Amino acid sequence: MIPRTIFSSEHEAFRDTVRRFIEEYVVPNHAAWEKAGEVPRDLWLKAGELGLLCCNVPEEYGGMGGDFLHSAILIEEMARAGATGPTFYLHSDIVAPYLVDFGTEDQKQKWLPKMATGEVVVALGMTEPSGGSDVQAMRTQALRDGDEYVINGQKVWITNGHTADLLLLACKTDPKARAKGVSLILVETNRPGFSRGRKLEKIGCKAQDTAELFFADVRVPVTNLIGEEGSGFKLLMTQLAQERLVQAIRGVSSSEAALQWTIDYVVDRKMFGHTLADFQNTRFKLAELRAELLAQRVFVDRCIELHLKGELDATDAAASKLITTELQGRVMDQCLQFFGGWGYSLEYPIARAFLDARMCRIGGGTAEVMKQIIANSMLPKVSKPS
Ligand SMILES: Cc1cc2nc3c(=O)[nH]c(=O)nc-3n(C[C@H](O)[C@H](O)[C@H](O)COP(=O)(O)OP(=O)(O)OC[C@H]3O[C@@H](n4cnc5c(N)ncnc54)[C@H](O)[C@@H]3O)c2cc1C
Question: Within a 10 A sphere around the Cβ of 19, how many other Cβ atoms?
Fold first, then answer.
């Protein structure tokens, strides 16, 4: 294996803490959370106590003052354990950066310390029933009325939607405009007029609470606006590079774990007087997956390095999400096959990983949207779809 060089010994010590946390608090309980369709608040509080939430938020706002490598470690270890329920990455590495980078001092002081302890759990509300890929076409409106915005509309597929105390909501402050009409607004979920619909029944990621959200004349103060009015689309585009890198890290790490479970299984499984590992088909298929994963691991580590310097652009981040999640799909499918019927049993982690992986080519921007971003960076733009 080409050695990984991005982490210091201090980071590796942090990894030990993360692994102990996962072994003690996550692994024994994940199946129960899958049945419940959500993760209890106690887990968030425990993670907060151990400094695992908002790792790279500055200490003055209650974070650990770490860097993105601390986040990467938590993301990797959760993915390796198949722990898709606790969505710490969404809270700490997708929503928190909007507050850190674009929030006012008051917003940072009010929310970040409680996000770091787990007292406040957050969600990101972008997708609507009418579509998620075409962000500029969203319909949820926040219209100004004096010192308040009045919000009306609906969101769907919102991770943490049932448990969140605070939403980072993407909505139209100018419904006639496309990109320039989009703003980002913080919405406390105890505001009158806000309600949550059903928890969506999904094929995988079952411990994640994924909800529909409704807004009927929800009033929030204008001080809840993040950045400037109409800047929401631009801010989203800035932060989506990190979101896509997060998905790429998850993709490679869960694929590596699945490959290891499969190696352990085929070495043990006996048939026709041999082990499953003795067959050339097994050896070659696993060798191919290993070679592809090795290349992706090196690529993703390079993307992390660039991101730490603020140099990872949206196109390369899209490429990292595209190729890692597509390989993840192939790894899970091929690895499941080696388990035979047991691969079809949810008692085996490979079956859950197979189902969980399917969302990775959809959530956080679909594979097709990633291809559009990459294509637009190298070809003339087309005004009509082909
Ligand atoms: C488990 C899960 C969790 C999620 N969590 C969140 C969350 O926390 N917050 C949130 O806001 N959203 C969340 N989402 C929503 C997710 O981001 C959207 O599902 C995704 O962006 C796609 O939007 P859509 O489902 O409306 O599909 P659509 O946008 O309707 O897309 C349908 C199909 O059209 C394709 N398509 C779109 N554009 C193009 C194009 N230009 N060229 C070719 N094909 C195209 C898509 O790739 C897709 O195959 C989550 C989704 C899932 C499944």
Answer: 14
User: Average pLDDT in the 301-316 region?
Assistant: 97
Q: Please, is 220 exposed, middle or buried when counting C-beta atoms within 10 Å of its C-beta (0-12, 13-18, 19+)?
A: buried
CA of 128 to the centre of ligand 1 (A): 9
Locate 298 and state its tokens: 């090196």
Find all residues with CB under 8 Å of 362, minimum gap 6, and list them. Answer: none
- Residue 386: is its pLDDT beyond 90? no
CA distance 269 to 338: 10
Annotated catalytic, 243? yes
Alpha carbon distance 104, 91 (integer Å): 18
pLDDT tens figures, 85-132: 999 999 999 999 999 999 999 999 999 999 999 999 999 999 999 999
Element (H, E) at 152: strand 148-159
Of 157, 206, 250, which is best to mutate to test ligand 1, by the most ligand atoms within 8 angstroms of its C-beta?
157
194-199 and 210-221: which strand pairing?
antiparallel
Q: Distance between CA 66 and CA 45 in Å, rounded?
A: 19
232 contacts 224 by C-beta, under 8 angstroms: no
| Longest distance between any two alpha carbons in the chain, whole Å | 79
Q: State the catalytic residue, choosing from 76, 77, 243, 256.
A: 243
Q: Beta 166-172 vs 122-125: how paired, if at all? A: parallel
167-185 burial: b if 16+ Cβ within 10 Å, else e: bbbbbbbbeeeeebbbbbb
Taking 80 as the threshold, does the pLDDT of residue 385 lie above it? no
Q: How far is the CA of 368 from the centre of ligand 1 (A)?
A: 10
The continuous run of DSSP H or E covering 250 comes out as helix 232-268
- Pocket test of ligand 1: the residue of 121, 127, 169, 233 to mutate, having most ligand atoms within 8 Å of its CB, is 127
Range 75-88 average pLDDT: 98
